[in-house]
Model the fold of this input.
Amino acid sequence: MTVASATAAEPDRPARVSGIDKIERRRVALAESALKTLGELGYARTSLREIANNSEFTHGVVHYYFRDKIDLISYCVRYYKTKCARRYDEVVETAASADELSTGFLAKMTQTLVEETPMHKLWYDLRAQSMFEDQLRPDVEMIDKLLEDMIWRLLTRYAELTGSTPAVDAPTAYALVDGLFEQAVVGYSANPDTVPGQLAGRITQVLPKLVTA
Amino acid sequence: MTVASATAAEPDRPARVSGIDKIERRRVALAESALKTLGELGYARTSLREIANNSEFTHGVVHYYFRDKIDLISYCVRYYKTKCARRYDEVVETAASADELSTGFLAKMTQTLVEETPMHKLWYDLRAQSMFEDQLRPDVEMIDKLLEDMIWRLLTRYAELTGSTPAVDAPTAYALVDGLFEQAVVGYSANPDTVPGQLAGRITQVLPKLVTA
DNA sequence: GACTTTGTTTGACAGTTGTCAAGAAAACGC
DNA sequence: GCGTTTTCTTGACAACTGTCAAACAAAGTC
Done:
């Protein structure tokens, strides 16, 4: 259908040097508002007008700052990454023992599961959409890599603290942990009380199996 | 938005007793055609007219056999389950050694990954959609349970053949394997040559870790 | 203060969507 | 054969979509 170009989303819009970050700030505001709507409704049910309605802007402004819908969504995805891929860094860096690392990681993980559910729902939605919409794939791939690295940092640190070595490679470790997390995200709405605890228990069970004794 | 009812999809349509399975056969034909389109385009981009166009029927027929769009999709999902949840049963039942089970399972798994990619893409898409569309959740939950049972049968048999016992519960085992499989499905289009082999290797690596030595 | 640039609003467009209803066609019972 | 029921076609509807452009307001420049 849409054979259109629009692969890169860099702003070739006229902008004086002093106002360039003002534009960027507007974009961020738009993106944040869009992410809120997207997280609630999902990709398929979110229209540009809905995004504009749930924001302080009108639907025309969206097209002033973004070329088209995909450009906006793509920007949102990339913006979203900056908020999540470094989520466990502090825990990983400061933990002095395997137990401290494990509990700290689990605390942050269940916390984001509970407090940022819509964002995680959106992420899994967008990753599914990227299988059908080619323009979404590069951004999704990038974030997937970021998350994989994040998990890998955790696992190598965990191995270090337990005096062992990772027993699986980075993509495998990420896929396993992500499988558990996605299961939790999907099931969270139906069982908000039990799911976070179950997730923590399962991660605790699995983590030791990912390093060699 | 849609507060509508339409939870059950049973046909309360007038139908003479002799023609009731004729209706069912038409529904199946519609569903099969719809699944083909859905698998190619994904949930968000598939319209009832597109489904009708890619079939031998007109768009009016769709509404004659299905109350609305969700009713059709829901039926498709349930129909889809019958084709996949028993996929590994023969391997599980006939395998006489852990190796035979493992290689047989991996063969079938990589085969369906390659040959039925659209169907798997659709499944992960629909599961994501179910987080936003309540009417989809019961069907998705049912299939998830079916798949979990399938993996559990595999794992218990594997433990049996290796003289060990499962080291994780059924939901955990399913989440882990499913995480690896979804990763493969997402990455398959970009790297059709390397992904199946990688998936096989990773499953081979992980399976032994899911039972106690 | 006049003028240009930048930002925003509003309204319109062409296309698509799900849904439905009226009527044609086919199948069926007798 | 005819009347009835079931199946299908066709065309229409209202609502919604992404996109755009022209009018408008604001800010900045000289």
Remarks:
- The first strand of chain B starts at residue 165 and ends at 166.
- DSSP finds ten helices and two strands in chain B.
- Residues 76 and 90 of chain B are 25 Å apart (CA to CA).
- The first helix of chain B runs from residue 20 to 41.
